[in-house]
């Protein structure tokens, strides 16, 4: 894993974790910085949505990462969750 791969992964984790307020998102880097997975929890800490894998090619490109976030936010809304406003 190069420093750039690690930095891109860490930045993507930060972006993911703040993208689903007021719900809690926990994201983690795995596979030597080549993949990220994340889970979103409700107010009772019950999992609502899990994304098992985002590959580096997607999370290292801002538009691709935003597409993943927008899709997850849409799914959460379909499940009846109200999310804070943000630009998707």
Summarize the structure.
The chain is an alpha+beta fold.
List keywords for this structure.
88 residues; alpha+beta
Folded structure, characterized:
- This protein is α+β, with helices and mostly antiparallel strands and 88 residues long.
- The protein is 41% helix and 26% strand.
- The protein contains three helices and three strands, in the order αβββαα.
- It has helices at residues 3-17, 56-59, 62-78; strands at 24-30, 35-41, 47-55.
- The protein has a three-stranded antiparallel β-sheet.
- β1 and β2 (35-41) form a beta hairpin.
- The longest helix is centred in the last third of the chain and has 17 residues, at 62-78.
Ordered list of secondary-structure elements with their pairings:
Elements: H1 3-17, E1 24-30, E2 35-41, E3 47-55, H2 56-59, H3 62-78
Antiparallel strand pairs: 1-2, 2-3
Structural class by helix and strand composition: alpha+beta
Report the sheet with the most strands, covering strand number, pairing sense and barrel closure: 3 strands, antiparallel
Helical content stands at: 40-55%
Q: Kindly state the mean pLDDT as a whole number? A: 92
Count of extended strands? 3
Low-pLDDT windows of residues: none
* Backbone shape: globular
Domains, number:
1
Order of helices and strands: HEEEHH
CA distance, first residue to last residue:
30 Å
Radius of gyration: 13 Å
Strand content: 25-35%
* Total DSSP helices: 3
Strand arrangement, major sheet: 1-2-3
